[in-house]
């Protein structure tokens, strides 16, 4: 089984399908912002030079967007490079990952460290909502690193700022570092108002926040992610160990301009607020599934009467790729994940899912 | 001092210079091919998906161009990622680098292995031409890996196919792997006719060849390099250890189309043949320098009466950035490197250099 949901190419090769609707990866359906298209066309000459090896201007723009200093920002070739850079530089010995979650933290740890990896379970019986008290108690076991994806992939749940502050304070007691993946935070209502990145009242030295432009601005193909680091020494070591020029010139350009594209941002925030509710409501009416309420642009679904692999196959036959979520730690073959896209396509997907699932009755 | 020549951004920041002519990085002056610009504009939607995690079609196209099989091809985010991937996967213990040469092999070895690194000297007294006999004798000392840049950066010298075959055969005797960086081979007269990549009469299991589209097609900002590997087991391990999606969607597109852009290729081959001779001849008439004959699109120069750092400073005051070559192993502050660009700019640069150097008399 594939580690990631996004390998639409392999699915197309295997199924000889020309056109598939991809509900397995969670990308803003508005597509590539016009502002980026225009900037690329106007700046082809950027390609004829190496990117700025220090990415100074890029880091300044991102810092400003986050009301921080450019010294807090590291950039990478997609969020994945930032994850790998962090893990291989910090090299934690004992790590706690709040799970089920995105697999790449664990993969990066396995590839680049000898860390002992433990999981903190988001329980199905608790609707996959974090049990903060229980997590805080677990931190007594003295981890070097706690990893939380927020909003969490694949459960869609968001941990509020006050709770996250509480968790960071508990981490600080044990000098446990806290790595928060906020790759989807722009899809959450209130967007950056929800992050602890710019909080002033708390000691953030142990905090590292991961971000990606690529989901919200629909440019996963361009590869751009960044990290917000409050530990100067660690940040300098990350920069020192990195391969040069990993962020390409167009990704650099995107990072500089997209955070100012207020029209795209507002239109997207508006869309996701409406559309995630629409999908939740409509899916809740479909037989033979349980739908988990989401705070972001994807939805976890528990299947009855069919397993995820079979459903995925039946849906591909209908022209739609869903994410078989059975390979997430603590999930199994009862689970799939669906993206939230535009209304028209959402209706098509809900109808097809309904058709497939109700045929089981 | 900077490891690389290409950091024009830092130079601009430090010198508050708005416009500088960059002769420190060796990029095709024809700029971004029109075929790529058109393909990008027609394919913005590629950005909305993750690249093919296995890059199957891309590797097929590159294999075809090299008359090889897609199983021989690994792709990377610039040549640099391929270098790092190779070194950290192979993890040689004892390495011989033919030097002076590009610094990133050594840097990748230091960052990712505990290898003992030795150098084979290209001697100034031999005009930096490889002494093949002497290299072959040195191979008796049983290295895990021999690294050769061909044509060599910064000396500009090319090792012919017959000689390289001879070297590989000697490597095979000791089971020494041979890593050849051919990032600039398209600039050499005869281009791919000069490579041993497609030779059939020799055992190539120990051979690895590095390539980059980015110099010849003037797209260093896009980040694309590839490796040709004849050791299946090593190649599989490289793929297995890699970070996902490191080649962005536009780099993937470039890799698929540019090797078919025969017009750009022919025009460029024609240009470099004429222009490197022109520059060599004109520079040979300038006082206070020695110019080394080049087989490619950059030229090594030895200074008299001024050191590289001072000359670089004086040239920046004239609006031109040259590569201070003093940080290459076996070179010192008598050496600079110049790119070969278009006739008009070459004349400007030669005139400015002449002016600066002759003012020393």
Reconstruct the topology from this structure.
The structure is a homodimer.
Chain A: H1 8-15, E1 21-22, H2 34-42, H3 56-65, E2 73-76, H4 78-90, E3 94-99, H5 104-112, E4 116-121, H6 132-138, E5 145-149, H7 161-174, E6 177-181, E7 207-212, E8 225-229, H8 232-241, H9 249-257, H10 262-284, E9 289-291, E10 298-303, H11 308-317, E11 320-321, E12 323-324, E13 335-339, H12 343-358
Parallel strand pairs in A: 1-11, 3-4, 3-5, 5-6, 6-7
Antiparallel strand pairs in A: 2-8, 7-8, 9-10, 10-13, 12-13
In short:
Chain A is an alpha/beta fold and 361 residues long.
Structural account:
Two copies of one chain form a homodimer. In chain A, strand 9 and strand 10 form a beta hairpin. Chain A has helices spanning 8-15, 34-42, 56-65, 78-90, 104-112, 132-138, 161-174, 232-241, 249-257, 262-284, 308-317, 343-358; strands at residues 21-22, 73-76, 94-99, 116-121, 145-149, 177-181, 207-212, 225-229, 289-291, 298-303, 320-321, 323-324, 335-339. Chain A has twelve helices and 13 strands. The longest helix of chain A has 23 residues, at 262-284. The model of chain A has no long low-confidence stretch (mean pLDDT 94). In chain A, the strands form three sheets. The first copy, chain A, has a seven-stranded mixed β-sheet with strand order 2-8-7-6-5-3-4, sandwiched between helices. In chain A, helix 2 (34-42) packs across helix 9, helix 3 packs parallel to helix 9 and helix 10 (262-284) packs parallel to helix 12 (343-358). Chain A is globular and about 60 Å long. The first copy, chain A, is of the alpha/beta class. Helix content of chain A is 38%, strand content 16%. At the A-B interface, helix 1, helix 2, helix 4 and helix 9 of A face helix 1, helix 2, helix 4 and helix 9 of B.
